[in-house]
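Sample entry follows:

:::
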Amino acid sequence: KPTKASMVPFRHDLDGALSYFAATGLYPEDKGFAITPFTKIRYEISGVNIDSDSATVLGHYWFTTLTGEEVKAEYSFQYVRDPSSGKLKIVLHHSSVPYSPGY
């Protein structure tokens, strides 16, 4: 789930993901999150759950813009071990701005 998407909040295929990260033009709201010139990214892990072939991690990250503003987001990642390579693969990612009580 893209952090900064509201008109099309879920991306179900590679073209949708590429639009969000690289601003390919598929969805007009996409500005290219991966090509945004952040000067710093820091993260804080809030929790980790490890299973025999999977892991879940959640926490916060902060993206520092060119003007020095920090943008906070909350994240969750789910990883599953690929049986053929033994490497962990991301199978689920969710990211959102924190809840604001006046929303």
Observations:
- The first strand starts at residue 40 and ends at 50.
- Residues 47 and 58 are 5 Å apart (CA to CA).
- The helical segments are 14-22.
- The mean pLDDT is 92.
